[in-house]
Design goal:
Blueprint: H1 2-20, H2 65-76, H3 79-92, H4 95-98, H5 106-115, H6 119-125, H7 135-164, E1 179-184, H8 197-214, E2 218-224, E3 227-234, H9 236-262, E4 264-271, E5 275-277, E6 285-288, E7 301-311, E8 322-333, E9 336-343, E10 348-350, E11 353-362, E12 365-369, E13 375-380, E14 384-385, E15 392-398, E16 406-413, E17 416-418, E18 424-426, E19 435-443, E20 463-465, E21 476-478, E22 482-485, E23 492-496, E24 513-521, H10 525-544, E25 548-556, E26 562-570, H11 577-589
Antiparallel strand pairs: 1-26, 2-3, 3-25, 4-6, 4-24, 5-7, 7-8, 8-9, 10-11, 11-24, 12-13, 12-23, 14-15, 15-16, 16-19, 17-18, 19-20, 19-21, 22-23, 25-26
Length: about 600
């Protein structure tokens, strides 16, 4: 009777709410955010939700400087911001692979300025030739560094607290969970229905706890209203892997920063038969880190004994394509002498430095004599390759010993051939028919005033051209072992052969080759490798370790039957959860155990 009257009162309140716009089930000061808007006022000026009027609208507090700083810090240290900064860092590194960098290819930068006189200064103003030390790249790098630190520290603290916490209490209604199953505990039919029900339930839960513990779960026993249950959880390695991934990523950033600060890289071109000593003055170009100390250089000597080049000779479609380059070198250092090989993808590691083979070419040996026959210049000059067939260009400068300073711009063709236009070209990269042509200039080389000049460039603006071009005098043309007179009686120039004892038509060893080496020292290499492996391991853990909770409850029915309820819950997507619950129930209670029809179980477990 009381229930009927209460229902009638509730229906009356609902009808009154429809008429007045006031909900009796909500407090009088409730504000749904529509207070003061048109059409929401009810009786007596009250809002439709029952709020007293416009004066009750919620006003957000104003943020002071401290609150704005806290807001900015939370945004910076969020995972979304860290991922965005990581993406920006990858994008910011792209220009470093599109244009040459001063740190690794200074000659390429000089050539880029020569080839693009209008674009290069614009790119240089944006530090495109120093990408990895630029202000904008460093800003992204440091922001990512701070973001990762701010993200890792609180998550680590929370994770450690979760590891020490007890598994949560068993939910009252396990049947509401999607991964749920039941098994009836088999008992002796002749036994008293109620005498040993509690003991059987207790034994079943104890067995479930032991099985879950063996499966790697953290287990906690609970007794709620006399119903024994066990709560278990596992998968904290997933969050551990996530933290290892981000911590190792931070470690990579720190290791790269330390390696860049204390390391160095330098380049040196070495001709066959010549040596290089690992001292600061011996490098053609040298790029030290901010904290590098040249006193830490180990003084060893590297001699290029021979450079072997193998080209395709059988496949007509790929004739002349390089197959392999091998630099045979001798290392003399504090530990003695040893013969080693350096290949393009197989660097040499000695005395804390990695020696990489970057490129190679030909270095014709040029000798210049004065009119009296005295040698004023002799050297094997590296000529820079211009195409796949090693058509090469080089510069010879003779500042002293002649009546005038002379410079020569030379073109070397390993296998000379003539185009339809009459111009020379090389049709094969190996020495089959080598020819050297020289355009001779006389005048001021521009080196007497101390201004540094590139050995691969000749400034002819203040010089007179004596051969080639519009002079009407043919360029000097030589083959190995030949010599000729210089214009204006300046002397003679000779293209010396490196194999004077070879047959007259055998040019295979007539011109020495050079190799370009990059010497790199990075004290953090091993740490970068360690952190990279940790990143991979942490990523695998975070992807493949499921985070699960599982409960087992023993419910004693009024008729004395003991029903075991099994349920599981996953954090995130876990398509194998239901199968895992079923398999555990089969192992624990046995596959033959009945799955009773529980009249108390709701028809829709998700409700």
């Amino acid at each position: 009777m009381v229930s009927s009257r209460r229902s009638e009162a509730e229906r009356a309140d609902a009808a009154s709410a429809r008429d007045t716009g006031v909900d009796p089930l909500r407090p009088a000061d409730y504000d749904d955010g529509t207070a003061g808007t048109a059409g929401t006022e009810g009786v007596g000026g009250a809002s439709a939700a029952g709020s007293p009027g416009p004066e009750s609208s919620v006003t957000a507090p104003k943020l002071g400087p401290l609150e704005w700083l806290r807001f900015a810090w939370r945004q910076l240290t969020s995972m979304r911001t860290a991922l965005l900064l990581l993406l920006l860092l990858a994008i910011a590194a792209v220009p470093g692979s599109l244009v040459p960098q001063r740190s690794s290819d200074p000659n390429g930068v000089v050539q880029y300025f020569a080839d693009n006189p209008d674009l290069a200064p614009v790119l240089d103003s944006f530090q495109m030739f120093d990408v990895y030390t630029s202000v904008w790249f460093s800003a992204i790098y440091l922001l990512l560094f701070v973001s990762l630190i701010g993200c890792i520290i609180p998550r680590t603290k929370h994770h450690l607290e979760a590891l020490r916490a007890r598994p949560p209490r068993t939910p009252v209604r396990l049947a509401r969970l999607s991964a749920y199953t039941e098994r009836e505990l088999e008992r002796d039919a002749d036994a008293d229905a109620h005498a040993d029900a509690d003991a059987a339930a207790e034994a079943a839960i104890a067995g479930a706890a032991a099985d879950l513990r063996k499966a790697g779960y953290r287990v906690e026993r609970y007794d709620q209203r006399g119903t024994p249950s066990v709560s278990a959880e596992r998968g904290y390695l997933r969050e551990t892997g996530n933290l290892v991934f981000h911590t190792a990523l931070l470690g990579v950033l720190v290791a790269v920063a330390i390696g860049g600060g204390f390391g160095f890289n330098g380049q040196r071109v070495i001709v066959e038969g010549q040596s290089f000593v690992n001292t600061l003055a011996a490098y053609d170009s040298f790029n030290p880190g901010r904290f590098f100390d040249d006193g830490r250089l180990t003084p060893y000597r590297l001699t290029l004994d021979e450079l072997d080049a193998v080209y395709e000779t059988e496949n007509a479609d790929a004739l002349g394509q390089p197959i392999d380059f091998t630099a045979h070198v001798t290392i003399d250092g504090p530990d003695g002498s040893s013969d080693r090989d350096v290949k393009v993808n197989e660097p040499l590691y000695e005395y804390g430095t990695d020696v990489y083979l970057l490129g190679n070419g030909y270095a014709p040996t040029i000798t210049v004599r004065d009119p009296d026959g005295e040698v004023v210049f002799t050297d094997s000059v590296p000529f820079l390759p211009q195409d796949a067939n090693l058509t090469s260009i080089g510069v010879i400068k003779v500042p002293d010993g002649l009546d005038e300073q002379i410079g020569m711009v030379g073109f070397f063709y390993p296998t000379q051939s003539t185009l339809s236009t009459g111009a020379y070209t090389s049709t094969y990269p190996d020495l089959v028919y080598p020819v050297l042509t020289l355009n001779v200039y006389s005048g001021d080389l521009g080196i007497d005033d101390g201004t540094p000049r590139s050995v691969y460039q000749l400034d002819t603006s203040g010089m007179e051209q004596l051969t080639g071009g519009q002079t009407g005098v043919d360029s000097v043309e030589l083959m190995p072992g030949e010599s000729t007179e210089l214009p204006n009686g300046l002397g003679t120039v000779e293209f010396e052969t490196a194999s004077p004892d070879a047959a007259g038509d055998d040019f295979s060893q007539s011109v020495p080759r050079f190799a370009s080496f990059d010497v790199h020292h990075d004290p953090s290499q091993i740490w970068v490798l360690v952190f990279a492996l940790l990143i991979l391991g942490g990523l695998l853990l975070s992807l493949f370790v499921p985070r699960r909770r599982m409960w087992v409850k023993a419910v004693t029915r009024p008729d004395g039957r003991v029903v075991l309820e099994y349920a599981g819950l996953a954090r995130g997507d876990d398509p194998g959860l239901e199968r895992a619950v079923e398999e555990f129930a089969d192992r624990h209670a046995g596959p033959a155990a009945a799955a009773p029809d529980d009249p108390r179980r709701p028809e829709n477990p998700s409700t």
